[in-house]
Amino acid sequence: MKKVLATLATLTLAATSALAAYPDKPITIVVPFAAGGPTDKVARDFAEAMRKPMGGATLVVENVGGAGGTLGAGKVAKAAPDGYTLLLFHIGMATTPTMYRKLNYKVLDDFEYLGLINDVPMTLVGRKTLPANTYPELAKWLQENKGKINLANAGQGSASHLCGLMFQAAVQIDMTTVPYKGTAPAMNDLLGGQVDIMCDQTTNTTGQIAGGAIKAYAVSTTKRVNTPVLAKLPTLDESGMKGFNVSIFHGLYAPKGTPADVLAKLNAALKEALKDPEFIKRQEGLGAVVVTDSRLNPAEHKKFVASEIDKWGAVIKAAGQYAD
Fold it and tell me: How many CA atoms lie within 13 Å of 244's alpha carbon, on the beta-carbon side?
């Protein structure tokens, strides 16, 4: 009996010591898209904000792009559930279950939900050489160039792909969609004039709009985005597309089975990171809204994603947009 009690005491002490030591090595945040894109930017700012509440830990961003974010997400789903491999994913967490018929993971079963980070509006932008300067002029140009319009996106299931689907349906004009392996290469071709328009997150477009490298026509939310660069842009809703409302969220996830104490520490750190004045300033400057509501809590985060799966599932099925 004494030996049993001694063993239990040793195990308890070891577990307590392990938690106290966590993290005792770098934490990897997997971003399932190419470097330089909007999700990558959010992740790098977030990693910096997480450093202090995680006791000065090193947080490394790893880009694992491809297949609309599913390669990176799948990697995290199969990673050791020890708190050292995390996933930072956007709305694709809610759209891939419908869009991809052969996912090698289950969104609601194979991850621990840690909390949402931000909500990000989208912007409808075009190449600098487009003759249209305002949304009404763009609408006219689209009508006059049916069958010749190239619409870029960051790959099937990406935020830009979903926004583009809704935009095409709203204007009732079929366009040639040009998918890329991430937002950064898509933006590069928009800058180079190889494609005509794109619907992309404000976190990726604000700098290019401010520098005059691309043209901006509207934002995707029902309210205007109150930043110096975007405040004058109309919403697509007020431009005649009543009810048009697309906002992208980013959330943090861990592999299923990660110890509860580690999850609690990560969630607490996430909440503190989102109070960081520099992180808030950077996000607001790009038109993003840092989450402060109940979706910071794991259960509400998961509930929200489940509702988004239902919402976007209907849109994807109606458009017949599936991937292998």
Answer: 28
Q: Helix axis angle, 277-285 relative to 38-51, nearest 10°?
A: 170
Let me know if 230 is exposed, middle or buried by CB neighbors in 10 A (0-12, 13-18, 19+): buried
In CATH terms, are 2-120+249-319 and 121-219 the same topology? yes
Torsion angle, alpha carbons of 301, 315, 147, 196, to 10: -10
> Which of the listed CATH numbers 3.10.580.10, 3.30.1300.20, 3.40.190.10, 3.40.50.2300 matches domain 121-219?
3.40.190.10
Task: Please say whether the beta carbons of 105 and 77 come within 8 A.
Answer: yes
Query: What CATH superfamily is the domain 2-120+249-319?
Result: Bordetella uptake gene, domain 1 (3.40.190.150)
Domain boundaries, the chain: 2-120+249-319, 121-219
Strand partners, 126: 197, 215
CB 103 within 8 A of CB 220: no
pLDDT tens digits, one per residue of 29-75: 999 988 888 899 999 999 999 999 999 999 999 999 888 889 999 99
Residues 6+ apart with CB under 8 A from 257: 81, 112
pTM to 2 decimal places: 0.83
- CA–CA separation, 70 and 82 (whole Å): 21
**What is the spatial distance between Cα 233 and Cα 227, in angstroms, rounded to a whole number?**
10
- Asked if 128 and 190 touch (Cβ cutoff 8 Å), the reply is no
